[in-house]
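re the bet — no i am not wrong, look at it urself. input seq straight from the record:
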Amino acid sequence: MIFNTWVFGVFAVVTFAVYWTVVPQHWKPAFLIVAGSIFYAYSVPAFLLLVLGLGVVTFFIGNAIARTGEPNARKRLLVAGVVLITAILVFFKYTKFFATTVDDVAHHDILPIPNIIVPLAISFFTFEFVHVLVDLYLGKIERLDPLDFSVFTMFFPTLVAGPIKRYQSFAPQVRRIILPASGDLALNLYRIVLGLTKKTIVADSMNAFTGPLNAPDAAYGRLDYWIAVLAYTTKIYFDFSGYSDIAIGVAGLLGLRIPENFDMPYRTRNISEFWRKWHMSLSAWIRDYIFIPLGGSRGSPFVTVVNLLLAMAIAGLWHGAAWTFVLWGLWQGAGLIVHRTWGQVVVPRVAILRNESRSIRFVSVATTFAFVAFGWILFAAPSLGNAVTVFVRLFS
């Protein structure tokens, strides 16, 4: 069920009406579980069993980690849980990608290409389950309550496109759900309307201009490609942030808070700041559960470079099963490495760069925006060949 459809509109209105007028206070969490199950099962009912099954496995392994005092046993449970969840994600989302890659490299049909349907939002709920297991292991979560965790798992505003929640900030709200005050009610309605406007009016209208990125053709001139890049840069922000606005507004109308996900990322002065304000819940997840466990920036400069590239490559692959997404992630990682080196080596030696003048800020914002916009070419292109063609025709 997608947010900007009449089906979701009917579902949401009926859910809100029943939730606040019929359902008793102590039954509201259970009602959210049922509503989430209906919401998810609307697309492919069979995959509801996958979400529930992985949720049950995460719950029991997580509480086993919390109860076990023996460090090695806790680590084995953590590894088993994370490997299982990751294996499910890899099987559904990347099996076809791996098989296609092997066949392309070998120039021969070595592996059969499976016809696997990817479960809706599998990237989001698997990342949330991994977070729960790791934070239980680290002691950031004491234990999992069955009701709180069930609501956390099946909370429909975040099931499709995030934001990626954290259990320790979400669970305490489940037992203290109250009707939003009039001011909060108006603000949440505003967020929903804002999100729908972003998605349907701005983002979707950009599709008329992005054709050269999807299918480069000699009929397009250089200006067409520049317009396409700017249109896609506009589209992807208003699309992603629009969905987040709707999710935040719907969650607020249900009496629950979820994290913000975007904070004017195209106005940032460098790529590091951009990633602190773009898809913030994902950026924080990549930092906490991939980059830091790999060693972060605690090792040598070479190790830091490797960790950044690997973390951002995984972030790219998370978005889609294609080498263009991996290269997009590496593009972002390279930008982070250049910014890190620039800040450590160049800026301390050039006084004008340390000044917060308007001209320096303007150049910094423009440079960051251009770097991000060119990166979206890799994100949008259906193949590496298409992306290369677009880069060439932008400047030829």
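see?? The radius of gyration is 23 Å. told u. also The chain has a mean pLDDT of 92. so pay up
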